[in-house]
Design brief:
By secondary structure, the protein is of the alpha+beta class. The chain is 34% helix and 22% strand. The radius of gyration is 28 Å and the shape is globular.
Length: 194
């Protein structure tokens, strides 16, 4: 006697972005001037839980209850779309994204937390994309993106300045260069009278 073969049923999951102010008052206003909106932390709600990432690692909490101590107040709740899949597939996707986000530690890797280049808002974007819904708006991570561009620009300028200084130093040490001590009289060519 054969048993009935059952296939897991797909479920339609609403995917929600929760955005929290990282600070309030004048500090948030100042950071808004720098980064096109302010400083935010975020999480993705799907399947009855909210998933987020901070310097301590990945977290699963109740929706609208952020794990990050940086979350001062909820700013916005935004539906990003729906994802249709089995519960097992949902868990697999979440685990897969979480593997790419590790807590801050002394030895940095591309997967460890970085306030500018690998933060909780990057996690929210990665999870939304992995679930096949709309990504969070670019303004969510505008401050970190501005800081990242500034660091890149400063690094580039430092490299150009350092390269120019290195070239000048190398030129000064070529065999054609003549070093004359400060207290030595420099010979002067004199014209010959006829």
């Amino acid at each position: 006697m054969g048993g009935a073969c059952t296939t897991p049923q797909e479920v339609e999951y609403e995917v929600v972005l929760h955005t929290y102010n990282a600070c309030t008052g004048p500090a948030q206003a100042f950071l808004g001037l720098l980064g096109g909106g302010g400083a935010y932390v975020s999480g993705i709600e799907v399947g009855g839980a909210e998933y987020s990432f901070d310097d301590r690692g990945c977290h699963q909490t109740e929706p609208s209850k952020p794990a990050s101590s940086a979350a001062a107040s909820e700013k916005e709740r935004r539906v990003l779309g729906t994802a249709t899949m089995t519960p097992a597939r949902l868990k697999k996707i979440i685990r897969s994204v979480q593997r790419e986000f590790k807590p801050a530690q002394e030895q940095r890797t591309p997967y460890t937390y970085d306030l500018v280049s690998h933060n909780g808002n990057h996690f929210s974007t990665a999870l939304a994309l992995a679930l096949g819904v709309d990504p969070p708006p670019p303004s969510l991570n505008a401050l970190a993106n501005t800081a990242n561009m500034a660091a890149t620009l400063l690094g580039s300028l430092a490299g150009q300045f350092g390269g120019a200084m290195g070239q000048a130093s190398a030129n000064a040490q070529t065999p054609d260069a003549v070093a004359v001590p400060m207290n030595t009289a420099v010979p002067v060519a004199r014209g010959v009278a006829s």
